[in-house]
């Protein structure tokens, strides 16, 4: 511990472990300043080889020796594991055999526990699996110290003196292998002999087949010659028949051709005749259609002329009605002016002037023929039947005064009620 800071650098296979002021637990670094109040130490991180001969015992209480070499070192890629290993090395400085005893104890303990759960036969026959189990269980225990098994070489299992189980088991396996080899040789020999016998049999069968095929080939050649002769003879006869057939076909074809041409000519003439007849009928029908079309067009033209005349007459009649209506409008307008705008006076004047009341009187007279009607006598405007002074308006006023008793008389005689626009009669 010094009064001034010191800069320290660890070697390639080492790290610095620093404790003291300002550091809560420990600090690990490759290079660092060592401040006043701090202390440091270097620890090696190189893997170390551990050689053991583990004495274990199987489930049958049979002892054996497991020679092994483990290469173990800190897990430098894991920060937590590195801290565990750094603390472990601090304890190791006090006792140099501490690390060796720790690793040996873990390996021997896990190997013995595993061997005690297996029979000797399982350990011997499953040596590879047994070694893997030992490796996994030892690694699990070393994790708590930040150590990692970089390599493990477990050698062949060795007998403990006085317990030569593996030797006897090896001899047994060798004898079984020798016997199996003898059996395999015998089986191979028998198989070889069987293959030779089979090959001889196959050869004999092939020779028989070849002889049979040779005889069949000779027979087939003879038959082929005969068949070929028959085929040639058949071809000759077929050609003769074909020649005769062609001759007969030529004769019949000539006769048939003449008859066919004759029939064709007759059919053509008949078709020509029917075509001409059809054309004549078609021409006649066309002429008749043209005549009917001309008649229809003439009738349509006549009807159109009549319709045009009627339309013209209607137009003129409508124009007359319009002129009459216009004249009547002027007439009514003049009357309204003459009567001082009195619509009732104008209406009564039109009824009287149009003979409406005279027509009513005539109808009533015809209706009461043969009856004994009640006679009413009424006078003019002045009571004497004569008009007084006042001109045209006085006459109209007199007529209007006579209208009420006249309507009452008509009602009494015929029960006729005049329209509301003429006047009303009170029921008695």
UniProtKB/TrEMBL annotation:
<dbReference type="Pfam" id="PF01145">
    <property type="entry name" value="Band_7"/>
</dbReference>
<dbReference type="InterPro" id="IPR036013">
    <property type="entry name" value="Band_7/SPFH_dom_sf"/>
</dbReference>
<dbReference type="InterPro" id="IPR027705">
    <property type="entry name" value="Flotillin_fam"/>
</dbReference>
<comment type="similarity">
    <text>Belongs to the band 7/mec-2 family. Flotillin subfamily.</text>
</comment>
<keyword id="KW-1003">Cell membrane</keyword>
<dbReference type="InterPro" id="IPR001107">
    <property type="entry name" value="Band_7"/>
</dbReference>
<feature type="domain" description="Band 7">
    <location>
        <begin position="26"/>
        <end position="189"/>
    </location>
</feature>
<keyword id="KW-0472">Membrane</keyword>
<protein>
    <recommendedName>
        <fullName>Flotillin-like</fullName>
    </recommendedName>
</protein>
<dbReference type="GO" id="GO:0005901">
    <property type="term" value="C:caveola"/>
</dbReference>
């Amino acid at each position: 511990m010094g009064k001034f800071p010191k800069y320290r650098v660890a070697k390639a296979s080492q790290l610095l472990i620093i404790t003291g002021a300002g550091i809560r637990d420990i600090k690990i670094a490759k290079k660092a300043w060592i401040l006043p109040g701090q202390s440091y130490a270097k620890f090696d991180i190189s893997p170390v080889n551990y050689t053991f001969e583990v004495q274990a015992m199987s489930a049958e209480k049979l002892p054996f020796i497991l020679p092994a070499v483990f290469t173990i070192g800190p897990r430098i890629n894991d920060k937590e594991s590195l801290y565990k290993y750094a603390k472990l090395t601090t304890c190791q400085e006090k006792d140099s055999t501490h690390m060796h005893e720790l690793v040996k104890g873990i390996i021997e303990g896990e190997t013995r526990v595993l061997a005690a759960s297996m029979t000797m036969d399982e350990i011997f026959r499953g040596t590879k699996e047994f070694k893997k189990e030992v490796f996994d269980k030892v690694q699990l225990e070393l994790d708590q110290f930040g150590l990692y098994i970089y390599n493990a070489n477990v050698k062949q299992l060795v007998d403990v003196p006085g317990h030569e189980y593996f030797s006897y088991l090896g001899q047994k396996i060798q004898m079984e292998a020798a016997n199996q080899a003898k059996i395999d040789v015998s089986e191979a020999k028998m198989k070889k002999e069987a293959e030779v016998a089979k090959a001889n049999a196959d050869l004999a069968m092939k020779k028989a087949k070849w002889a049979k095929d040779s005889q069949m080939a000779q027979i087939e050649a003879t038959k082929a010659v005969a068949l070929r002769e028959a085929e040639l003879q058949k071809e000759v006869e077929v050609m003769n028949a074909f020649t005769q057939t062609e001759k007969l076909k030529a004769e019949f074809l000539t006769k048939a051709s003449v008859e066919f041409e004759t029939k064709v000519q007759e059919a053509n003439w008949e078709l020509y005749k029917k075509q001409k007849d059809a054309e004549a009928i078609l021409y006649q029908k066309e002429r008749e259609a043209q005549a009917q079309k001309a008649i229809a067009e003439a009738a349509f033209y006549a009807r159109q002329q009549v319709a045009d005349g009627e339309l013209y007459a209607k137009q003129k009649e409508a124009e007359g009605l319009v002129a009459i209506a216009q004249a009547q409008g002027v007439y009514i307008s003049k009357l309204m002016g003459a009567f001082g705008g009195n619509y009732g006076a104008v209406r009564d004047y039109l009824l009287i002037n149009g003979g409406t009341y005279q027509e009513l009187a005539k109808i009533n007279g015809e209706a009461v023929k043969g009856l004994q009607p009640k006679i009413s006598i009424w006078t003019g405007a002045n009571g004497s039947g004569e008009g007084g002074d006042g001109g045209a308006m006085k006459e109209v006023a007199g007529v209007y005064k006579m209208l009420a008793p006249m309507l009452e008389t008509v009602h009494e005689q015929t029960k006729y009620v005049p329209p509301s626009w003429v006047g009303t009669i009170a029921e008695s």
